[in-house]
């Protein structure tokens, strides 16, 4: 047959029906709620925002103004709200592309849009039940239970609020981990040739009091254990790509509170100095404890830690956070559909990589207790 000719195609038979692809089922959820920390949008917001964050802890205003200088270096504006706006846009686009017609809302713990205001809008829109995605991936009081307490506070303000379910921890979801791996590889590639092969990987997260880590998760120690599990998985995957197993350690930033209270160490700046003293040729700081480039990243790492590295002559690069990486955005959709299936009593694969399995849907009783006394919290087994 000549190449310009094609074989005739059979005509569809009268009883043939076109294939209809059904949209993924998000029931019983009729909305998705992004729950974040919040941050100031202008200089006049900075101290009131910090007062919200530290309420009940007796921190003097002078100390808040001192911490506020970090924000003033960037025009008095935290990047976190703009990043949440970008994430919302990416998430809505991802859901639409998957054929999911679901409204996505956004509420903050410590600044506008406040959670209670968002719940009022959801109630006015007729939302009855929403899945909540937290911009905090790990287990501890400050990174999980405090979010749940704030949800309980907001629901108490809004009697007509929809029912809320928190999506599970995602520190070991492949959509998050793969974004971290590629960012680490890209940062390694940016190091000078003489520093790359023997480079150290410093996995950075927010420090917390050691007592808080000791009570994190149902059996204690979950916060640090989860970070170490992710770090090991990233190191293993980097080795698969480069053929080199880079030495690594989980290190910390953003310590606060009374000096006599022990917090997780080492501090990232102390760690950099120790690396230089031991002859390490270079370092990549991997902000694995953060999902976007907010203040702890752009000040503590990009400003303070990079200044330390320059001062001591240690070649350093900072890996990107997951941000709006399409794999991380798609992970939210996967977590939503996974939990929706669970609530309908259906089986669904629970994606997880590394040494830990996918964690619980409802936080266990007594998990990550409030160090200042018990308070109501949503989304737990006993709530």
UniProtKB/TrEMBL annotation:
Fe(2+) binds at residues 206, 296. GO terms for cellular component: cytoplasm. Its main location: cytoplasm. Keywords: Cytoplasm, Heme biosynthesis, Iron, Lyase, Metal-binding, Porphyrin biosynthesis. One of its GO terms (molecular function) is ferrochelatase activity. The keyword Hydrolase does not apply. It comes from the Bacteria. It is found in: Cytoplasm. It is an enzyme of class 4 (lyase). GO terms for biological process: heme biosynthetic process. Residues 1-30 are annotated as: Disordered. Its EC number is 4.99.1.9. Involved in coproporphyrin-dependent heme b biosynthesis. Catalyzes the insertion of ferrous iron into coproporphyrin III to form Fe-coproporphyrin III. Belongs to the ferrochelatase family. This is Coproporphyrin III ferrochelatase. It comes from Nocardioides panaciterrulae.
């Amino acid at each position: 047959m000549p190449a310009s000719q094609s074989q005739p195609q059979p005509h569809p038979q009268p009883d043939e029906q076109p294939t209809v692809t059904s949209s993924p089922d998000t029931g019983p959820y009729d909305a998705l709620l992004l729950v974040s920390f919040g941050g100031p949008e202008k200089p006049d917001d900075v101290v009131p925002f910090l007062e919200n964050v530290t309420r009940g802890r007796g921190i003097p205003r002078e100390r808040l103004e001192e911490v506020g200088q970090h924000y003033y270096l960037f025009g008095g504006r935290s990047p976190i709200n703009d990043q949440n706006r970008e994430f919302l846009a990416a998430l809505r686009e991802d859901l639409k592309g998957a054929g999911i017609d679901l409204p996505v809302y956004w509420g903050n713990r410590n600044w506008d849009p406040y959670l209670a205001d968002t719940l009022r809008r959801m109630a006015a829109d007729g939302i009855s039940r929403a899945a909540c995605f937290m911009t905090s991936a790990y287990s501890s009081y400050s990174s999980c239970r405090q979010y749940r307490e704030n949800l309980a506070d907001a629901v108490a303000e809004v009697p007509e609020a929809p029912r809320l379910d928190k999506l599970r921890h995602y520190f070991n979801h492949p959509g998050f981990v793969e974004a971290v791996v590629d960012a680490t590889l890209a940062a390694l590639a940016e190091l000078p040739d003489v520093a790359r092969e023997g480079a150290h990987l410093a996995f950075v997260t927010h420090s917390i009091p050691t007592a808080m880590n000791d009570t994190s998760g149902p059996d204690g120690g979950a916060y640090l254990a989860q970070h170490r599990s992710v770090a090991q998985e990233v190191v293993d995957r980097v080795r698969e790509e480069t053929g080199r197993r880079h030495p690594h350690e989980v290190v910390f930033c953003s310590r606060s509170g009374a000096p006599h209270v022990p917090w997780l160490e080492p501090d990232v700046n102390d760690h950099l100095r120790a690396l230089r003293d031991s002859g390490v040729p270079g370092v990549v700081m991997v902000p694995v404890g953060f999902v976007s480039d907010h203040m702890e990243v752009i000040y503590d790492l990009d400003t303070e830690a990079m200044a330390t590295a320059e001062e001591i002559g240690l070649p350093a690069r900072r890996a990107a956070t997951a941000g709006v990486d399409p794999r991380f955005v798609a992970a939210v959709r996967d977590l939503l559909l996974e939990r929706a299936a669970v609530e309908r009593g259906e089986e669904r694969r629970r994606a997880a990589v590394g040494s830990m399995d996918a964690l619980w849907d409802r936080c266990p009783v007594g998990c990550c207790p409030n160090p200042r006394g018990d308070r109501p919290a949503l989304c737990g087994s006993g709530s």
